[in-house]
Amino acid sequence: MSVKIAPSILAADFANLQREVEMLNASDADYIHVDIMDGVFVPNISFGFPVTEAINRHAQKPLDVHLMIINPDKYLEEFKKAGAEIISVHFEACVHLHRTLQHIKSLGCKAGVAINPHTPIEHLENILEEVDLVCLMSVNPGFGGQKFIPNTFSKIKRLSKMIADKGLNTLIEVDGGVNQSNAPLLVEAGANVLVAGNFVFSSDNPITTIKNLKNIQ
């Protein structure tokens, strides 16, 4: 299975958002990664329903919505209405994670769980059967452009073994500091989905950059 690429729209030029989304439509990207930050769970604020809806109006790729917020259960229906096809919530933000995942699936969305760099992947042992995607944060969440945390490679390998041992098809997504240098190593370790923000949108030719990431074996 070839790696899936999910450019993070947070790194786009928001003065030309429609143009940026149309560029992604024309690219080899598989998803559009949408980072929602509330300034509480993470020390930054991004955007909410109106911008997500605006992205969705022009998007021809599935929206991969990453909720970096507290109390995500309150907003699941609204993000579904705004166009989310994948909704990932943070393990650290959910008191009743199983219930939250069931809620996401009941809306017709794929359910994802994101975990911060300090969170052991073993904490997901009893929930993996309910998860379509695990988003491993390879930087501390909240800001783009951070340096990749090398321990991520070990976490990917351990998570990949857990998934294989259970006979599951859960996708492993890596979010933060992804570039052309570490992407092959991430895929080799077992990653299926690569989120790339600044690396894509700050490049001279984002479409070529996405294509190069997509072609990594």
From TrEMBL:
HAMAP family: RPE (MF_02227). A divalent metal cation binds at residues 33, 35, 66, 175. The active site is at 35 (proton acceptor), 175 (proton donor). It catalyses: D-ribulose 5-phosphate = D-xylulose 5-phosphate. This is Ribulose-phosphate 3-epimerase. Belongs to the ribulose-phosphate 3-epimerase family. The lineage of its organism: Bacteria, Pseudomonadati, Bacteroidota, Cytophagia, Cytophagales. Keywords: Carbohydrate metabolism, Cobalt, Isomerase, Manganese, Metal-binding, Zinc. One of its GO terms (molecular function) is metal ion binding. GO terms for cellular component: cytoplasm. InterPro entries: Aldolase_TIM (IPR013785), Ribul_P_3_epim (IPR026019), Ribul_P_3_epim-like (IPR000056), RibuloseP-bd_barrel (IPR011060). It comes from the Bacteria. Its EC number is 5.1.3.1. SUPFAM superfamilies: Ribulose-phoshate binding barrel. CDD domains: RPE. Its cofactor is a divalent metal cation; Zn(2+); Co(2+); Fe(2+). It is an enzyme of class 5 (isomerase). Catalyzes the reversible epimerization of D-ribulose 5-phosphate to D-xylulose 5-phosphate. Binds 1 divalent metal cation per subunit. GO terms for biological process: pentose catabolic process; pentose-phosphate shunt. Substrate binds at residues 8, 66, 142-145, 175-177.
